Amino acid sequence: MTGAGKVAVMADDWRGKTVGTIRDLILDAGPDVVEEIKWRKASNPDGVPTFSSSGLLCTLETYKDKVKVTFAKGASLDDPTRLFNASLDAGTRRAIDIQQDDVLDEKAFVALVQNAIALNQG
Which of 47, 56, 67, 106 is the most buried (most CB within 10 A)? Predict the structure, then answer.
C-alpha cells in the first residue's frame, strides 16, 4: 500500500519493469512489509517508494541509467553474494545499482530483505 493509495509509475521502460519486480520481491519477503510513497516534490512528483517493517528497510529509485535500491541499515547486513555495489563507503547505508542488462539474484535479494527485517526487529 502506498501513502497516497496508488503506486508510483516511475518509468515506462526497462526501469519500470525492474521496479515492479523488485517491489514484488520486497513485499513478498515478509508479511508485515509496508510500502509508502514519500518525498514528493515538483522535481519528483511520483515521490520515492519506501519499504518498512519495524522501521525503514529500503528505498527504490529510478535514474536515467539505473534502478537503485538503498538499504537504510545496509552496512549492518551480511551480503555473502555481494549484491551491494554502491554506497559501499557510507557509514550506515548500502545500495544496489541495477543497470539495464543486469540480472538480479532474486533469491539472494529476498534473503537480504529478510535479514533487514530481522535486524529492524532486533
Answer: 67
Sign of torsion, CA 105 16 9 85? positive
How far apart CA 40 and CA 38 sit, in angstroms, is 6
Question: Among residues 99, 96, 100, which one has the least CA distance to residue 88?
Answer: 96
Asked whether 115 and 53 are in contact (CB, 8 A), the reply is no
* CATH match of 14-121 with 1.10.10: no
Reading the chain (122 residues) residue by residue, the pLDDT tens digits are 433 333 455 567 899 899 999 999 999 999 999 999 998 888 888 889 999 999 999 999 999 999 999 999 999 999 999 999 999 999 999 999 999 999 999 999 999 999 999 999 98
- What does the domain layout of the chain look like in residue ranges? 14-121
- The Cα–Cα gap between 45 and 40 comes to 5
